[in-house]
Amino acid sequence: MDSSKHHIPEEAKEKNEEKEKRPQGAGDWILELFSPTYANAAAVLDGKHEVTEEGPRIKMVSAFDPQSIKNVYERVHMMIKLEEELKKEKAQAGKEGEGSATKKRHTETTADSKRVNLQDSAIWNAEELSVLRGVFRAAKSQLSGLEVKLRQTQRHNAELEEKLASQGTLLDIKSKKLTEATKANHRLKIHCEELQLEVRSMVMKLEAVTEMWREIDQEKLRMMQENQEHRIALDKERMARQQLEIQLQEASQEIAREKMLAEENAKTRYEHHIHRLQEELVKAEYELEGERQLHSQNKRALEHLRNHFASLPLRDVLPPGVVDRDQVAFIDHVSL
Question: Which residues are in coiled coils (predicted)?
Fold first, then answer.
């Protein structure tokens, strides 16, 4: 009994030292729920232990405290090991039943001492075992809930993996579309540069056409001036013709007066004069016909120019006082 009492505290001390050296892990949650109590503690061996009424050794801690649950787990593990050793010794004692009585008594004595040691070293009472069962049931219930949550999490992870695969497929599609869009953008950029070159070319052509239009406008002004000069010349010719008609009338009257006096001379002179006038008249008619043809050509040219520049803003370009309408229609022709 004394040797066994000394042996158990040494084992407890070794376990405490191992506990201090060992890092805190997932299995350390039982240690703080129950603290082991030994009947042969060091204080009892030293004679300093006072016998008091032992109450329940339950610590008022949470049933889910990791350190407390670790302590409970280690105690359960220790008791299971002690029970296994006791069963092994009983089995060995049964096999050696045919041995000597001295050995049998020694074995029985050893078994009894160990049995007594097991009884003396019991670490739980009925209340503590009830609490342990409650903790176990609570842990089992919590484990069931965690298993349900695990299955839900696994299903959710499967759904997320499916979504991830679909998102990966969509990402590949988007990447392909982005590549195609980048290529299309590059093509559009090249096309835009070509259009800019075409715009520059069209601007240069427009400037050339504008310069040509200015030259045509100057040519139109020059032709309008020539037309005005032709009108003045035509008026002069009309006045000259009127003067010739007056002179002809005067000559006719003079011939009529002088006819009586010198019919033959007057007749010869009159014929000569008429012949000269007819030649001049034919010449004037030829000139008038040429002027009419030139006027018709100018009129057709002006009609073409009018049709060509009908949509151009001439009023913004022409200086003030310049004729901006066709004046050919207002020309009066003298009928012969």
Answer: 143-198, 227-294
Distance from chain centroid for Cα 170 = 15
d(CA 171, CA 168): 5
- Which of the given ranges, 83-92, 117-126, 199-208, has the highest pLDDT on average? 199-208
pLDDT tens digit sequence for 261-274: 777 776 777 788 88
Cα-Cα end-to-end distance for the chain: 172
Give the helix ranges, DSSP H, for the chain. 2-21, 42-45, 66-95, 101-120, 126-259, 263-308
Instruction: Write the DSSP assignment of 176-235 as a string of letters.
Output: HHHHHHHHHHHHHHHHHHHHHHHHHHHHHHHHHHHHHHHHHHHHHHHHHHHHHHHHHHHH
Nearest by Cα to 326 from 316, 304, 212: 304
The structure tokens 């013709």 sit at 241
User: In whole angstroms, what is the distance from residue 87 CA to residue 115 CA?
Assistant: 11
Question: Are 85 and 117 in contact, with CB atoms under 8 Å apart?
Answer: no
CB of 110 within 8 A of CB of 89?
yes
Determine phi and psi for 152, rounding to 5 degrees.
-65, -40
Structure tokens belonging to residue 195: 């259009």
Structure tokens, 178: 């982005």
Contact 123/37 with Cβ under 8 angstroms? Answer: yes
